[in-house]
Design brief:
A hairpin with a 2-residue loop joins β6 and β7. α5 runs antiparallel to α8. The chain has two domains: 66 residues; 149 residues, Histidine kinase-like ATPase, C-terminal domain (Heat Shock Protein 90, 2-Layer Sandwich), CATH 3.30.565. It starts with a helix and ends with a strand. By secondary structure, it is an alpha+beta fold.
């Protein structure tokens, strides 16, 4: 499974690079063509993320999920996430801001948290917002990361699903909840003494937009 997913990920990476090159060569005023390429790029990106999630869930099921904890500077991690989606956000006219102390660092698995926050960001882009903010701060003994947008917010079904397990019913209804299940799993792999990471979904009382909150001990 690991080898097959790795091979598919390589193919998707080449596909996304080709899409970016094609987009760069298109005239700026070719809006329909840019919109079409953006849509294809998003779907390829989403497929890539889903493959990683499936592999991670499989490894977690057999107790073989590698977790590599090391010191990570959060501003650098945020910049990497924003840069990897720069083409998509720029052409969609979305402003992405980062609010974090340049000196803030935390011990975490960089790859897992990158994948988690990357998935949250591209979904925020997808669902009709014009502004997205990434922020991080320390609260008590936790680092709190928030991804907030000014879109329509999470529907009630998503808010309800944020704390339930992945079930056959969800799959049969076409609402797998895989992204949320993955996010919770990635958060929980981070632990310190008796404290574990967690996620929370909410809607902003000011803008009505969605707020994804990640807490890491």
């Amino acid at each position: 499974m690991a080898v097959a997913i790795h091979d598919m990920k390589n193919s998707l990476s080449l596909l996304m690079q080709s899409i970016e090159q094609m987009s760069a060569k298109l005239p700026v005023d070719a809006k329909d063509a840019h919109d079409g390429l953006n849509s294809v790029h998003y779907e390829a990106n989403r497929m890539n993320t889903t493959l990683v999630q499936v592999l991670s869930l499989y490894r977690a099921e057999i107790d073989a999920l590698p977790v590599n904890i090391d010191e990570v500077f959060i501003a650098e991690l945020f910049d990497e996430i924003v840069d990897s989606n720069a083409m998509y956000t720029s052409q969609q006219g979305i402003e992405v801001t980062v609010e974090v102390d340049e000196e803030l660092s935390w011990y975490l698995d960089r790859e897992l948290i990158y994948l988690l926050l990357h998935d949250v960001l591209i979904n925020a882009v997808r669902y009709g917002c014009s502004k997205i903010s990434l922020s991080a701060r320390i609260e008590n003994t936790f680092m709190v990361v928030e991804v907030e947008d000014d879109g329509p917010g999470y529907p009630d079904s998503m808010l309800e699903m944020s704390s339930v397990t992945l079930t056959q019913h969800c799959i049969s209804e076409g609402r797998t909840g895989l992204g949320l299940f993955f996010a919770r799993l990635m958060a929980k792999t981070h632990k310190n003494m008796d404290k574990r990471g967690s996620i929370e979904l909410s809607n902003s009382s000011e803008t009505g937009g969605s707020v994804f909150t990640l807490r890491l001990p």
